[in-house]
Amino acid sequence: MKVTTGMMVSYPKLSDVQEHKEKPLLQSGVHLPRPEVYQDLLEISDQARQIAADINHELVKVNIPDRPIGAPDDYIPVSELMRRFDPQNYEKMNQHFGNNESEKGLLLLIDFTKKLPLHPDWIEKYREELQQPVDDGFSS
After folding, report:
1. Which residues contact 102 (CB under 8 A, 6 or more apart)?
2. How many structural domains does the chain have?
3. Residue 7 pLDDT more than 70?
């Protein structure tokens, strides 16, 4: 006995099938939805982030006293002596400080300070110059 008797089964012919004209989603430029997962590429810990958030980034102006605490009344800053008796290194020192090269600037100041015991006349001459009246060019 034939089961297919009376039933007409039609199979599609390969020549009758139309070409699929739609492009697949990836080729059409449509992106499939995917969940975005946040990744910390720098891998900074939560504790470090909290510290960074707590830092106050405002500059605070500090008043530097004219002389160190406990210094005598006739204290002379070494930088003033350096400006008067070693002007070339004084300018270099200020340039280093201006360029954030404080170590180089301090080395120049320390080298000058080491020369002071060899030249006590510099201190006396500097004090004499302070005692002299300043000629401003306006007085007759």
Report:
1. 96
2. 1
3. no
DSSP summary character for residue 137: S
Please tell me the distance from the alpha carbon of residue 122 to that of residue 130, in angstroms, as a whole number.
12
SS3 category, 115: helix
Residue 72 belongs to a domain: no
What are 59-88's pLDDT values in tens digits?
667 677 778 888 888 888 899 999 999 999
* Helix extents (H) in 12-75: 25-28, 46-54
CA distance 11 to 138: 119
Q: Please report whether residue 100 resides in a domain.
A: yes
Is 84 a domain residue? yes
Q: Print the domain residue range for 88.
A: 79-131
Helices (H), 29-101: 46-54, 78-85, 87-98
Domain membership of residue 6 (yes or no) is no
